[in-house]
Amino acid sequence: MAAFKLTIRNGPKVTRERHDSLGDAVAALRDHTERIRAEGDLPEVSMIRTYEPGSQVKARLEISTGGILRSRDAGIDVMGDGGLVPFRGGVFRKELKPAEGDAYAAVERAMLEQTAG
């Protein structure tokens, strides 16, 4: 049975969980994501230019199989305005287009496709 690692990066805080099934990992991903979204939006940041909340990543949550070689990775970026951007891949991320707006289903589907492919 494959184990799935969920890594939650919320600001400077990083936590990791281990789940025995992909379904459990996706359910935990959903719970943590919704909790982070409930914390509220990030403020606009002005430095050399202005960064709107929607262009800032507030948190990154990633499910992986944890292997160095042949690892499967997919997750969600929680944007500063509460938007969700699902992605696949670890180092080289590819944004996913969720069907009917379900970012969690897109992550689960990406993990399953990586297993089949």
User: Major sheet, described briefly?
Assistant: 6 strands, antiparallel
If strands are numbered along the chain, what order do they take across the biggest sheet?
2-1-5-6-7-8
Task: Tell me the total number of β-strands.
Answer: 8
Q: Unreliable runs, pLDDT <50, ≥5 residues?
A: none
Please state roughly what percent of the residues sit in beta strands, choosing from under 5%, 5-15%, 15-25%, 25-35%, 35-45% or over 45%: 25-35%
Secondary-structure element order, N to C: EEHEEEEEEH
**What's the overall geometry?**
globular
Question: What helical percentage do the residues reach?
Answer: 25-40%
Task: Please count the helical segments.
Answer: 2
Q: What is the CA–CA distance across the termini?
A: 18 Å
Structural class by sheet pairing and helices: alpha+beta
The Cα radius of gyration reads 14 Å
The overall pLDDT, averaged over residues, is 90
